[in-house]
């Protein structure tokens, strides 16, 4: 039996009568266990927070639709990846087709900041954009609402610079601090890259050789 499955990736679906584009973006939320990944996804997609800790097994995902501009609708898929090491062997499967990632640590647990590098290396080893470049990453220092012996901002800034992380935010899923802003940063980044790609492709097309259409037919 032969069947062909088309995988939709970051695709453009015209909404027929409105002349609108509908895009699908897959984003990853990664970082050590207990740092607040599920809480961030829940805050962003449902506007809710719970102080109960329920470990994520494998991965989970939630969708939020954004009316980005009058011509563009974005279906944002947030993949909430389990932080516990025992699920680590599965990450390659979950990372597939992701366009961006939020890397989270718990500002009150320094060990979770020390793990950020490991998560980043693992991510970049396993996924690149079709042109070979790294996917955009934002770093989130979560749980800023609780008492913490702070990791100095300079240390975080330095880490981002040394590891080509575009931006970082101090966040709280509990008190809804900077969650929307951080995700928005990633969406803007992905859109910017798409536009640059389109411009580059159109330049390539204009510079490329001109093929004359021939009257050919294909036999299979
Ligand atoms: N005070 C405070 N607690 C938070 C915040 N975000 C998450 N938590 C709490 O931290 C605990 C762990 O949060 P989760 O979102 O389940 O952590 P996770 O990163 O998804 O953990 P895994 O699924 O095991 O990888 C829960 O008890 C949350 O309520 C926050 O911003 N502030
Ligand atoms: Mg979780």
TrEMBL record:
CDD domains for the chain: Rab32_Rab38 (cd04107)
Cited SUPFAM superfamilies: P-loop containing nucleoside triphosphate hydrolases
Pfam families xrefs: Ras (PF00071)
SMART domains given in the database record: RAB, RAN, RAS, RHO
Subcellular location: Membrane
Principal location class: membrane
Function recorded in the entry: The small GTPases Rab are key regulators in vesicle trafficking.
Stated name of the protein: Ras-related protein Rab
Species the sequence originates in: Neodiprion lecontei (Redheaded pine sawfly)
Gene that encodes the chain: LOC107227001
